[in-house]
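dumping these here so i dont lose them again. two proteins, back to back, each one seq then structure tokens. dont judge the mess
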Amino acid sequence: MPKRTRAGALTVLAGAALAVGTALAAPAAAAAKAPGFLAAADLPPHPSSSWTAGKVTAGVRDAVRRDTCLGIALGGGQNTWYREFRTDLDTSARQVGVELPGVSAAKGRVAKLDEDIVSCADRIEMEDPETRAAFQDHGELSVGDGAHVYALHTETSWGASDIRLLSLGRDGSTVTVVDWGQLGGFRDAPVKAFKKTAATAVNKLH
């Protein structure tokens, strides 16, 4: 995802150094620009609580770095931003946006993320024998340069049940992931509404 007399000579050299410094600093500033992000109103409506959106923040949260599904591909943090969303109850969400050096790199990142998400249920069970995980593929969306929606349900041996919806999308050299979650199972997931959220996320990138 940003530069005659001795006194006269010194003045010229100082001016030249300032010009070089400015020229070198400009690309760094340009590279630091975040892509567009979802607003709270873009999330699937919650039946009893409104959504609150946090600030768009540079980097990657530790929770993402440790995440079995996303941490391998999103854990680096370079030219990466995130925004967190919450309700007053048990439902929360997060969007991550990554600006890659070019389209080829962005396609490679999407391929890696897709591989990690699809294999996530199996890896969760391998890492934690006390957890059972199941995966659903909810198909592709015709938006930007493509998007995909997935669902993941986990249930522990002591009865904790969680459902996640994940979307992966790309527009040019920018990749975004939306991660929605709450207590419950597949039947509790608002897949139709989340597909609208996923499409909006890609449309807002630029």
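---- next one ----
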Amino acid sequence: MIYLDNCSTTKPRDSVIEKITESMQMTFGNPSSLHGLGMSSEKILKSSRKTVADFLGVKTNEIYFTSGGTEGNNIAIQGALKARENRGKHIITTMIEHPAVMNTIKEYEKNGYLVSWIPNGSDGRIDLDKLEEELTDQTVLVSVIHVNNEIGTIQDIETIGKLLSKQPMKPHFHLDGVQSFGKIKFSLISAGVDSFAFSGHKIHGPKGVGALYINSKARVNPLVFGGNQEMGMRSGTENVPGIAGFSEAVRVLTEKGSVETQKIADLKESMTRMVLDQIDDVIVNSPSGNLSSPYILNLSFGWTRGEVILHYLEEENIYVSTTSACSSKGTDKSHVLKAIGLDDNHMEGTLRLCFSYEMTDEDVARTVQVLKNSVEEVRSIMRR
């Protein structure tokens, strides 16, 4: 099997599965309980929180465990807006956000908030001059997707942070970091980021667990009330086995992440070159070099259908996607591909290939060969 749908979800590492199993069997107590089993679970929470915080270079008390990226984004966005509802009702975001952010902000737009949707170029990078132009003393939130989940574009968070820091009343700066955490190098502190949401199952950890960084100086109101778990930010009994597995995935990244990322960058470059050499009428939607995540390659093939090619590849035990997993069952075309100005013909023939450390040179060569054959067959049928 050649698995190239790692943006949707990743295969958990063996050591992650071991940690989850160990926690479920040995430390199954409620971390809020006062007896020994509860204290053992609480110890896992504390050590996991430190592992994640150290990886990001932030304080331990600034990390809150969640159920994943969607919840983390919602807590940060809605919590920040609730904390500032008497100060202003202006939000700035981009036209290429993940649905977890875009749909949340659209709900606030329906309910009286003014939203500035910042445009972008064909490479997916947002117009920073336009962002600066839209800032007012009523702007309470700026939310940006750090690495775009469809084409892999990396936004310049350092420059955005500097623009926001110049404001007399600095708006809350939130990042959707689901596709950047553990995959590219950055500093939340130097960029002046107030909150950052990320997920376990994108880094070979378990599903159903993630985390949210909130700067200790930022004001974010909780959305769920109860037993005051997670320092009152996210009430409800913590998913200790999931957090243990998530922490293990982060620990492995601490040790091996740089080496794995370089290998993946080389594989992506090799595949891009082979596709362009062997298949005609191809558009590479992912920016080149350090403007794009090494883990994401978005390709559009003229006079094809992405869904059809996907199933051709699946027959050869190669797994890819056509768009974000959270959008794949919708009927509308990708809002990201529309935003970068891709024409309808190529939009229909788009595939997203997302790499992992398990990928090899042989996998790349085989994928390109099967892809070439599939594209040629689909085109021969469509042109009859």
